[in-house]
Amino acid sequence: MPETLSTAERRRRWREAALPSLRGVVLDLGAGSGVAADHLAPEVEWLALEPRRRTDPALSERLGRRTTARLLIAPAELIPLESEAVDAVIASTVLCSVRKPARALAEIRRVLRPGGKLVFFEHVAADRRTWTSALQAVYSPLSRLIDHGCDPHRRTGELITAAGFADVVMQRSEAPGVLGTVEPLIDGTAIR
Ligand SMILES: C[S@@+](CC[C@H](N)C(=O)[O-])C[C@H]1O[C@@H](n2cnc3c(N)ncnc32)[C@H](O)[C@@H]1O
């Protein structure tokens, strides 16, 4: 029987597997507490992006602990970097929250150097015409209102596939969701 793991545990395991191999300049979109930085190699230049000036105090601590790190205050839809400026982008449970995910993905492609890599872990909409998808559609407006814009009914996997990357590798998994439903998850990489 497959292991029943929470979203948080799956995300923790994904961080451990996906982040230590990143090198060069790494942009962490919607960095939150900056927990991703704990898994980055020390020589990585970490750019933590958050849309608002008021950030999690843990983010400042983590920024202070690294040799090369910078905070960018901007939305993912308008990244304040030159084109082809970064080697990798981390998107961990953030594309659910941005206002314009297709716009954010276009910005990710723009700032990645050719051959650069987006690594992602996101919760997504359930398959169409399922009970979970119907429920997600119903509670999406409430979730967006009370949970920092988070949309549980967003088809982020389809958006990543359609964003024009050269190569996308994606896998799906599930975690326990609300009201006895499952929460569909995706993780993977997209190469510019
Ligand atoms: C669920 S948290 C994830 C934090 C972190 N990436 C992690 O894996 O723990 C979502 C983050 O996305 C940020 N966010 C929301 N809208 C955003 C936007 N338009 N552009 C960039 N970040 C955004 C929030 O401020 C928050 O820190």
TrEMBL record:
GO molecular function, one term: demethylmenaquinone methyltransferase activity
Domain Methyltransferase type: 27-120
SUPFAM superfamilies documented for this protein: S-adenosyl-L-methionine-dependent methyltransferases
Keyword Methyltransferase: yes
Cross-referenced InterPro entries: Methyltransf_11, SAM-dependent_MTases_sf, Thiol_S-MT
Pfam hit, one: Methyltransf_11
Domain of life: Bacteria
Gene Ontology biological-process annotations: methylation
Keywords: Methyltransferase, Transferase, Ubiquinone
EC number(s) recorded for this UniProt protein: 2.1.1.163
PANTHER family from the UniProt entry: METHYLTRANSFERASE LIKE 7A, METHYLTRANSFERASE LIKE 7B
Name of the featured protein: Ubiquinone/menaquinone biosynthesis C-methyltransferase UbiE
Organism whose genome encodes this protein: Microbacterium hydrocarbonoxydans
Biological classification of the source: Bacteria, Bacillati, Actinomycetota, Actinomycetes, Micrococcales
Gene (UniProt): ubiE_4
